Amino acid sequence: MSTPAMQRTVFVVSDSTGITAATFSNSVLSQFDQVEFDTVRIPYLDSIEKAEEAVARINRCAADQNAPPLVFSTLVDPAITETLRGANCIFFDLFGTFVQNIEEALGVKSSHSVGRSHMGGLSKQYNARIEAINFTLAHDDGQYVEGLKEADVILIGVSRCGKTPTSLYLAMQYAVKAANYPLIPEDFDRGALPATLLPYRKKLFGLSIQPSRLAEVRNERRPNSQYASIKQCRHEVAAAERLMRMENIPWLSTTTKSIEEISTKVMTEIGLERRQLY
Amino acid sequence: MSTPAMQRTVFVVSDSTGITAATFSNSVLSQFDQVEFDTVRIPYLDSIEKAEEAVARINRCAADQNAPPLVFSTLVDPAITETLRGANCIFFDLFGTFVQNIEEALGVKSSHSVGRSHMGGLSKQYNARIEAINFTLAHDDGQYVEGLKEADVILIGVSRCGKTPTSLYLAMQYAVKAANYPLIPEDFDRGALPATLLPYRKKLFGLSIQPSRLAEVRNERRPNSQYASIKQCRHEVAAAERLMRMENIPWLSTTTKSIEEISTKVMTEIGLERRQLY
User: Residue ranges of chain A with pLDDT lower than 50?
Assistant: First the structure.
């Protein structure tokens, strides 16, 4: 990693949460590692007054930095978009750029309605996510084993290898009922999966982690314990990976992956990505 | 809502998780409510072989449906992108469309490196998110009050109004240490905030919910209980809203909002969106 040679301010503007524009700009700007980007999000920009305020902020920034900021927009309203375009900035109209092409391709007109991109509070998808989060919280760390039969996936691995955040992400993002179950020294001594899990083999997905990283994480929780010692971590990780290999359970190491990456792999490998016709 | 008049398959292709492309396509396609879109995500598309497989899938779909599918791509590799473009599809090159403009605006070249958009497993941001999730889990529902002083925000509201999912989303997405604390009938009888919360007034944000919706949610958990009765729900919600108004605590109703929308409002209102220079 080299030190960034330049800095630039990025405004993310949206008539709704701005999550789409923020995700997109973050993603595309990661291609420019010479530049350090400082992002300002302006959500719920839904009136000309608010647009004028935003223009003033953008212009102030341009003047201070002597460089026009980048603006990523998912605004839908044409008049608000035009107002923003008037600012001293480099404007990227994410929807506008593609909506016309999509209209032509589909032969239909877009609805041009604002704030539609996220499901409303009462939708089926919303309820499914809340239900999955509640399920995941109730089935964290091997609690309430009777419920495992309802799980879509059961993550297994040694204590502190990343099961809980991954389970919660799967629930939150994909409405997947993700339980998790720890592999503990007794399982390694026995050299077998916990009996509780045997009926659910096909739902199991393993997470592992580098022993040195595990020792770090465990030390934060219980400093200088046997549990956090590098020796113990090495032993547990090796034993867990041996067990998962022996039992033919798909698994991956979380050490250098983001929660999003781990979750995507889990979805793909365990066939949760939904039955795909194509 | 009218019944969609047509259906169309959408492929989301990426050399990484595909989350950016999926978020974007979902968002822009929500502008076309006459069409029902069926999305197929192909993540980790990082070789010409995989690209050729994807082309075959897309072509099969086009032939079956007698219409070219839409393809949203955040592929970075030019050769892989070219392969995909060869499919019978309408191709949207999300990065390509903007990268050149950004290069010109900034006067620097992009790195054209794949799979960069999400932080690696060991990054500071990743650790901050995991720490925030652990904090939120430890401070769910008024547990461990000593830790509240470290919280970035404390969500309050009646039981089952949406505090837990919102707290988790804030932690997961923004690395915000979000605690939550229930408002219970005793608080309403006393007509005052729980004493525990008084030192943290500035961190409080209230969530409310329509009584009928609350009764529904509570009934799932404890069917036909006093707790879930519409009368009890009406009483608690009215009392909680009165208390929050009296105490001048910012709050909103979760009833018709997505977790993303609620979280964005919390971030903005409580000033967590970070100190913004502009």
Answer: 1-4, 118-122, 275
Q: pLDDT tens digits, residue range A180-194?
A: 999 999 999 999 999
Among partner residues A60, A76, A122, which is closest to B256 by beta-carbon distance?
A122
Return the closest-CA partner of residue B136 out of B93, B159, B113, B166.
B166
Tell me: the pLDDT tens digits for B174-184?
Answer: 889 999 999 99
State yes or no: B231 annotated in a binding site. no
A96: Cβ–Cβ under 8 A, 6 or more apart, which residues?
A73, A81
pLDDT of residue B263: 93
Picking from A55, A3, A10, A62, the residue whose alpha carbon sits closest to that of residue A33 is: A3
Dihedral sign of CA atoms A187, A189, A195, A200 in order: positive
Give the gap in angstroms from C-alpha A215 to the nearest C-alpha of chain B. Answer: 14
Q: Which one is the CATH code of A6-106: 3.30.70, 2.30.30, 3.40.50, 1.10.3470?
A: 3.40.50
Q: What is the rounded CA–CA span in Å between residue A212 and residue B117?
A: 26
Cα(A109)–Cα(A96) distance, rounded to whole angstroms?
A: 13
Domain residue limits, chain B: 6-106, 124-269
Q: What is the pLDDT of residue B142?
A: 85
Q: Which residue of A has its CA nearest to B90?
A: A105
DSSP-derived 3-state class of residue B137: helix
Confidence of residue B273 (pLDDT cuts 50, 70, 90): low
In one-letter notation, the amino acid at residue B266 is V
Closest residue in chain A to residue B60, using alpha carbons only: A278
Tell me if ipTM is over 0.90: no
Count of CB pairs separated by less than 8 Å, A with B:
223
Q: Which fold has domain A124-269?
A: Rossmann fold (3.40.50)
